[in-house]
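Table S2 (continued). Query chain:
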Amino acid sequence: MWGSGLVFVAGVVAVLVVYLGGSGEKTAAAPLSTEPAVVNEQQQNVKLNPEARQVAGRFILTAVARENLAEGWELTHPELRQGLTKEQWLTGNIPVQYYPADAIDTAAFKIDESYPTEALLEVALIPKEGETVKPQIFFVGLKKSGDRWQVYYWAPRAAPAIPVLGDG
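Corresponding output:
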């Protein structure tokens, strides 16, 4: 109870600091512009590059499944490697949430964002009937590095558990 109260107070303080700009005075809002927004060509949505989708699939079958970690290393962007050497990566103790490839019946992809050099997808991994592993949705982020796509982000899409309050 005390912990959640402290978290709440910290959140209120953070909102006030952002709103007041940390100076104790309310900051003036920037005037609205009537000019059209200039969109950087890099940020315009484009059709997902088929190579990016293929890299995401191979990443799941290698790094995520802990099978053929050498190939998984090549498919992984340095951001996701988090400073691990290839030798360290090959041990399998990597910053990638595991999911067993042999349990997967279906991997359905949804495109959240797709730009010329970056994409964010959601992938639903559905297990075969009778498997003990549960279905899971993951976010997978891809970046184009030179002439090839690599995975820079992999995380489960899960809502935080909300405790059930008991009677009394």
